[in-house]
Specification:
Blueprint (H helix, E strand, L loop, with lengths): L1 E5 L3 H13 L3 E5 L3 H9 L5 E2 L9 E4 L3 H11 L8 E4 L5 H13 L3 E2 L1 E5 L19 E5 L6 H13 L5 E3 L2 H22 L14 H7 L6 H10 L1 H23 L3 H22 L5
Parallel strand pairs: 1-2, 1-4, 2-3, 4-5, 5-6, 8-9
Antiparallel strand pairs: 7-8
Amino acid sequence: MNILVVGLGLIGGSMCKALKKYTYHTVTGCDLNHDIENAALRDVAADDIFDGSFQGKELVVIALFPEAAEKWFEENASKLDKGTLVTDVCGIKGAFSYRMKGIAEKNGVRYLGIHPMAGKEFGGYYNSTGDLFLNANFIIAPFEDSQPEDTVILKKIAKDIGAGKIVETSPDDHDKIIAYTSQLAHIVSSAYVKSPELSLECGFSGGSFQDMTRIATMNEKMWTDLFMQNREHLQYELDLLIENLKKYSDALRSNDTAEMLSLIAEGRELKEDNLRHRVGQPN
């Protein structure tokens, strides 16, 4: 296919590099920063840079922050060939996807959102890699009336660039689950590093500290956009976490060893059940 990737940051740049490394698709890169576009050409991450013409583009991958992705689509959907398949890689679907679908239908193109569950501590094109998606979970969020062939196309691309488990879910269910599995973890990491002990951790930290703090370097503009667009689901998960944390705090405050032991055991058992459930699940 002739694929246009809009936005050459970490995910968009990695998508270009992966497509060129593992497939025979023709890739056109588009970014506001022309130096980045030229870098993609030099890296053979793109066959071409965008010249303003959408003619012949069969698939458009919008790799921008949600607000910017919606704005770009609104401004350019009418310029696309009729029937062009458009997707986005945003970590939000739900109402966002329905608005994107509305733009697509108004302009005679097709839309179906995806969410590659891959990333790094630091973003930007120069941190992108063609192997970013290897063994990563990959979510496709079709609507009830989506064309089955659109899901097939995006699933094939996911497999080709090395995705591990590919999951199909509705846009609404995506947001409900992702609030727990991704967005809540980013809030916890951001809050965790706000202890004054952070400046003293060197030499005292191990894997658990690194695991807890790795994603605190997130891009605040993108993640604020994601959090606010999914605020109801995220608020529910955050309130539940605070409620559970209070139980540990109360056990410490009251010097209740038995309660602390019970709380830790409960958490261990839930995670062990979770791990047993994952074993043997097909990709």
